[in-house]
From TrEMBL:
<dbReference type="Pfam" id="PF08031">
    <property type="entry name" value="BBE"/>
</dbReference>
<dbReference type="InterPro" id="IPR016166">
    <property type="entry name" value="FAD-bd_PCMH"/>
</dbReference>
<feature type="domain" description="FAD-binding PCMH-type">
    <location>
        <begin position="53"/>
        <end position="222"/>
    </location>
</feature>
<dbReference type="InterPro" id="IPR012951">
    <property type="entry name" value="BBE"/>
</dbReference>
<dbReference type="InterPro" id="IPR006094">
    <property type="entry name" value="Oxid_FAD_bind_N"/>
</dbReference>
<dbReference type="InterPro" id="IPR016169">
    <property type="entry name" value="FAD-bd_PCMH_sub2"/>
</dbReference>
<dbReference type="Pfam" id="PF01565">
    <property type="entry name" value="FAD_binding_4"/>
</dbReference>
<keyword id="KW-0560">Oxidoreductase</keyword>
<protein>
    <recommendedName>
        <fullName>FAD-binding PCMH-type domain-containing protein</fullName>
    </recommendedName>
</protein>
<dbReference type="InterPro" id="IPR036318">
    <property type="entry name" value="FAD-bd_PCMH-like_sf"/>
</dbReference>
<dbReference type="InterPro" id="IPR016167">
    <property type="entry name" value="FAD-bd_PCMH_sub1"/>
</dbReference>
<keyword id="KW-0285">Flavoprotein</keyword>
<dbReference type="InterPro" id="IPR050416">
    <property type="entry name" value="FAD-linked_Oxidoreductase"/>
</dbReference>
<feature type="region of interest" description="Disordered">
    <location>
        <begin position="1"/>
        <end position="20"/>
    </location>
</feature>
<dbReference type="GO" id="GO:0016491">
    <property type="term" value="F:oxidoreductase activity"/>
</dbReference>
<comment type="similarity">
    <text>Belongs to the oxygen-dependent FAD-linked oxidoreductase family.</text>
</comment>
<dbReference type="GO" id="GO:0071949">
    <property type="term" value="F:FAD binding"/>
</dbReference>
Length: 493
């Protein structure tokens, strides 16, 4: 017999009233059924950060316990439902959305801090701010992403890059243990001492292996930090980009993991795009400005920020939000050092040209060059966790945002097109973005948490892919979890 595929999944629209009621009766939490609750309540539970991926789910289970999650998983398996896991709802490419059943973890948001052991534990429905604020109250820090409204689940299982990565690595490098519900409905613990293969897989394998209902992280002593944005006139764009070649040896490396700069083409309200640098330094202002002197020597026309609590940095982007423009598309690629400024300038020119071409539709989009210190990330062998993109390289991110649903396909095409343009230019110059090797094949690398979702899974998992497929066959042979760079299981009969 040949290979067989997974059982086809459905959206649950044909479920009987009695079946839905049976599920509702088995839960401590609430079951929201499309068409059977108020529109206001329904719209709130299906809302997502990226409005491109708001889907009309037929069932949304607002779970309140591991037992609730287990009941939902067993119900989904019995009725072959398409399932999505909603933690923070912050996915770029809709991994938390479905027209079938959403297992919504927002009520699993309990946080505990063990100050003496320097450990912070949070439910699978927590957003980063929940744990960061609780830790900060005890003089501690915990590593998540640049924006503290992101759910801890998707960010962590996808790797987890943050402002403190230079000192502490990825979020998964600080993950100590988890509790999760498997596709069978079984509740298990996973750590370096228990279900070790599963623990390896979820650290970079995304939501492919089950519902994580609790995370335990290593914390560390954390005080105020320095954060400042420096803006420059457009006529200094080329000087800013040329400076990028010097930042690595002159600013990042002397910062010893504490200095994390980023460059961006941003569009403040009612203004055209302008070049800017963001400086994050885990230490006092005097040290930060001394190390980052080349950025100040370029004479910014505006500076904003200073010393502040760490959570003020991860919360600063919330303060910069605007009404509308809640549809997002992004792509990413790695660039090796020293940065090829010709390619980078060409990429920026392409970005500005495409934004201008569409008038005001994409005026709040940005082009980001992440220059943070990834030496600690790269020092960990690739097979230590499932996360494969452990490179000490710059990350380039064309990030489009808009508010007209008719432009969804256009925006996605523009972001991936800019990345492809830069990759092709590097190829023509006989240079490379970072690549992964799997036998004789090479795959371009990127950061999977900031992506279009259409990239090849070989580029996500690299040489870890064969082992991940084996573990997928062990823990989820019927591919219930299929929303985040889904791992295909080939089964022979």
């Amino acid at each position: 017999m040949g290979s067989t595929g997974p059982t086809p999944r459905n959206d649950g629209s044909s479920l009987s009233t009695s079946d839905r009621q049976a599920l509702a009766d088995s839960l401590q939490g609430n079951l929201i059924v499309k068409g059977e609750t108020s529109r206001e309540e329904y719209d709130e539970v299906i809302k997502r950060w990226n409005e491109v991926y708001i889907k009309q789910a037929n069932l949304v289970a607002l779970v309140e316990s591991d037992a609730d999650v287990s009941q939902c998983v067993k119900f989904a398996a019995k009725h072959n439902l398409d399932v999505a896991i909603r933690g923070g709802g912050h996915s770029y490419h809709g991994a938390s959305s479905t027209e079938g059943m959403v297992i919504d973890l927002r009520k699993l948001n309990r946080v505990t801090v063990d100050k003496s052991a320097k450990r912070v534990t949070g439910g699978g429905g927590c957003i980063a701010m929940d744990l960061e604020k609780a830790a900060e109250a005890e003089g501690l820090g915990v590593l998540f992403g640049a924006v503290n409204e992101t759910g801890i689940g998707g960010l962590t299982t996808g790797g987890g890059i943050g402002w403190l990565t230079g000192e502490h690595g990825l979020a998964i490098d600080n993950l100590l243990s988890t509790r999760m519900v498997l596709a069978s409905g079984e509740v298990v613990n996973a750590s370096t001492n228990e279900n070790t293969d599963l623990f390896w897989a979820i650290r970079g394998g995304g939501s492919n292996f089950g519902v994580v209902t609790e995370f335990e992280f290593r914390a560390f002593e954390q005080g105020p930090v320095f954060f400042q944005m420096l803006s420059y006139p457009m006529e200094k764009l080329k000087e800013c980009v040329e400076l990028l070649r010097r930042l690595r040896p002159e600013v990042v490396e002397p910062g010893q993991g504490k200095m994390q700069p980023m460059f961006a083409m941003i569009a403040p309200p009612s203004l055209p795009h302008t070049p800017a640098f963001m400086i994050f330094y885990d230490g006092p202002e005097e040290e930060a400005k001394k190390i980052a002197k080349p950025l100040y020597d370029l004479e910014p026309i505006n500076t904003m920020g200073g010393m502040m609590p760490y959570t003020a940095v991860t919360g600063i982007f919330k303060m910069m939000e605007m009404k509308g423009f809640d549809r997002w598309a992004s792509s990413s690629l790695h660039l090796t050092y020293p940065i090829d400024t010709e390619v980078l300038l060409a990429g920026i020119d392409k970005f500005l040209e495409r934004v201008k071409h569409h008038g005001d539709a994409f005026k709040h989009s940005s082009f980001i060059v992440d220059l943070r210190d990834y030496r600690k990330v790269a020092s960990v062998p690739t097979d230590t966790t499932a996360y494969a993109n452990r490179y000490d390289a710059a990350v380039v991110v064309p990030d489009f945002r808009w508010d007209d649903a008719k432009l969804d396909q256009t925006a996605r095409r523009e972001t991936t097109g800019i990345a492809a343009f830069m990759k092709e230019m590097l190829k023509d110059k006989d240079k490379r973005t970072r690549v992964q090797h799997d036998g004789e094949r090479e795959f371009e690398s990127f950061y999977p948490n900031v992506s279009s979702g259409t990239e090849k899974i070989e580029s996500v998992y690299g040489s870890n892919l064969p082992r991940l497929r084996d573990l997928k066959a062990k823990y989820d042979p019927d591919m219930m979890w299929n929303k985040w760079f889904s791992l295909t299981v080939y089964m022979s009969g």
